[in-house]
Amino acid sequence: MRKPTINDVANLAKVSTATVSRVINKQDGIKTQTKERVQKAIEQLSYIPNALARSMVRKQTNTIGVIIPDINNPFFPLLISGIEQQARKKSYFTILCNSNESPEIESELIQVLLERSVDGLIITTADEYGHQLQPVIERKIPVVAVDRQIKNFEVDTVLVGNVDGAYQATRHLILQGHTKIAIIRGPQKTTPGYERFAGFQRALEEYKIDLDEGYIIEGDFKEQSGYEGTKRLYSLKEPPTAIFTSNNLMTLGCLKALTEIGWILGEQVGLIGFDDLDFAEFVNPPLTVVSRPMRQLGEAAFDLLYAQMTSEGDWTKRHYVLSPEIKIRQSCFLKSPNQQK
Amino acid sequence: MRKPTINDVANLAKVSTATVSRVINKQDGIKTQTKERVQKAIEQLSYIPNALARSMVRKQTNTIGVIIPDINNPFFPLLISGIEQQARKKSYFTILCNSNESPEIESELIQVLLERSVDGLIITTADEYGHQLQPVIERKIPVVAVDRQIKNFEVDTVLVGNVDGAYQATRHLILQGHTKIAIIRGPQKTTPGYERFAGFQRALEEYKIDLDEGYIIEGDFKEQSGYEGTKRLYSLKEPPTAIFTSNNLMTLGCLKALTEIGWILGEQVGLIGFDDLDFAEFVNPPLTVVSRPMRQLGEAAFDLLYAQMTSEGDWTKRHYVLSPEIKIRQSCFLKSPNQQK
DNA sequence: GTGAAAGCGCTAACAT
DNA sequence: ATGTTAGCGCTTTCAC
Question: How many other β-carbons are positioned within 10 Å of the β-carbon of residue B196?
């Protein structure tokens, strides 16, 4: 009734545990005959090796931890798929954790992952200063930061070009004839929040367009803030003719507000969002967006982590920056006469 | 440079490992003074207990495995959130795995989870016959099936009323005056696929509407099949005036096809989907759907698992069925004159 | 080619 | 109130 152990197998097969261990681990130097006897015993007992015990002696778990801030953001499942796919190839197992954008939960999760002796960590942190990572760094556990940088520690990082993407988005708006352009930006203490705003600014400066303070809305990357921000914008004496939303959730919120208040997309207001949405094509008119190669981001992150985990001695930290792509659909053209085209 | 162990702490604090263990586990019966000494040592070494070692002796990991078939289906993140939230309350840790709808991967994952000695398993299986679960059942590891039943074993189950939801959806279509109603159904070997079709049939029978064989499209719950199914429907000599899609991804595919072929939603064809979509309100016209309480599903699943894990002796298997709700928006009204209203 | 035995880091009796 | 010690199930020298 007890879970069978390597001992039970050894007894049944009339060999030592060492031999069983060798069979399990596919080491050679074992007579075919005994090997088969062992395999039959394993079969009979439906023995499953205990990974905990193995990890204790090997001092490695073949497990990596992945911490993401919001599993309900469609961005992350794709990222996760990318990570898992690569991990699976190298037979690493992934433990996925959701910090829910809370630095406290993130700290707890790190603690728990450390207790469970993960071999490495991939993280999109909820707090870019990264004090939470202290224990990880201390133990020299391989880490890679995805999508958001860590300020306090020098760690491997994989990002997409935020400044670049936001710059392109804003320029697109400008080239459509918009001059009253608003941004619903993310928290300025996060890299994406900060950089996307920087790209936005750069485009405006380059085209010598003034930035009205009232056109800057402080969001938090969640739907609700996009929703409220849009309403705020609409209530301005002079509402913008175009909005750049800094992430998909806020784009969604913006869209909801637009519909609700009857601010007509593509006629009275243009919109471009950072990050694609699976339904962007069904919005009326279809939504123009900055799209990020999320899956590749995940793949690159694991590859980097793997390189780190398997490298001996010193490791030189690397930063990868992938390029976003702007998907032009139709939400940025304005049909009103005072806009060109 | 080595990870500090309980021994290091004991030495530094000049106590035995047993005492350190007691402090770590917050057992009382320890002089405040020594306790503090131990805590200081822990602090100084930034010691983190090794959960592997602990689990080995305790024979429990406080970890549950969760296997879902498709992390990119917006349904599952919600489910996961529900599970995690409850798990966290009872300080259980969740390992999330994605089978990608593959029974083979699912088997592997189960194997790995078993190797890692999870205390329980929550699963939405990729193969409802459930042979993969054999080893889990054998070891008497608590399991709960979510959203899809297991045919070969009697296990705790949490579902939503598929028949009911599909029945309501179809009836809604009928009451809008539709008689040429098609269904894009899921694989008939899965419970949701089968039951949703049954609900569909029941409504038609009840209202004495004939079911044209050509109106039954065999999908696989993925976007592509919804897309292709819709095109097939359109190419019929006599296309249906309404479509019931059996899950969100196929609804999405259907929508894409509709747009592409110019089959106008709400004018030439009505649509109701099983499962809500975050953008259902932005479709033109807004999409009517059958909505499932996904978060609650997850909560209920963990609660059930927890009850099982903490119960002594025999456990009577339970089945919970939560009720879906139909969210009426506007995609089912037809504007053409030969339909009532 | 195979076995004996020493741990891995921790907990839980059992002593004291 | 605290210490001693025997494992938990496995891998890995080191012998034979």
Answer: 28
Which of residues 34-73 of A have CB within 7 Å of strand D?
Answer: 47, 49-50, 53-54, 56-58
A50, A81, A117 ranked by CB distance to B72: nearest: A81
What value, to the nearest 5°, has the Cα angle with vertex B135 and ends B133 and B137?
A: 70
For residues B42 and B130, state if they share a domain: no
Let me know if residue A1 belongs to a domain: no
* Inside any domain, residue A279: yes
Positive or negative torsion for Cα B7, B8, B9, B10 = positive
Q: Is the peptide bond before B324 cis (omega within 30 degrees of 0)?
A: no
Task: Tell me the pTM.
Answer: 0.88
Asked whether residue A167 is assigned to any structural domain, the reply reads yes
Residue range(s) defining the domain that contains residue A94: 63-160+294-322
Q: Domain boundary residue among B292, B314, B335?
A: B292
Q: Which of A98, A139, A251, A263 to mutate to test the interface with B (most CBs of B within 10 A)?
A: A98
Residues A81 and A104 in one domain: yes
Same domain, A127 and A146: yes
pLDDT one-digit tens code per residue, A128-187: 899 999 999 999 999 999 988 899 999 999 999 999 999 999 999 999 999 999 999 999
**What is the phi-psi region of residue B307: left when phi exceeds 0, alpha when psi lies from -120 to 50, beta otherwise?**
alpha
Return all residues near A207 (Cβ < 8 A) that are at least 6 apart: A171, A174
- Shortest alpha-carbon distance between residue A215 and chain B (Å): 25
